[in-house]
Design brief:
single chain, 135 residues, mainly alpha, flat
Amino acid sequence: ALGVAIIVMLGAAKLDQLIEMLNFNYSISLLMEYAAFLKLRFTRPDMERPYQIPLNNFWCCVFVAPAILLTVFLMLLATYTTLAFAVVVNIIGFAMFYCRSKKGTRAMGRKASKSINGSVGSGDQSRSASITQER
């Protein structure tokens, strides 16, 4: 239902507004990627990576600084409509992520406790009980 509402809302906008809104949200994701790159570079330098940039931390900051500055500059050129759209969409997205992660954690906790206690089903009770006894 939320996807349909967003599509209907976007269908009422002009093409240049749609492009601006999409680019603004893409810019937000780029800034998150740059932040993650720098955070992991400083906090977990020995982490296994498929590819490492052969620069020290200072030069990595210098490396991404122009991209960050240009991205922020382009975001400052956005209209108020685009800013409002980005704020609303990102708040909804973070709320959905938070709710789904909490729901998944609770559901996983219930499944784990049921299988350990042996109350999953009649056929699984003896098997769960024997697994519990082996521990």
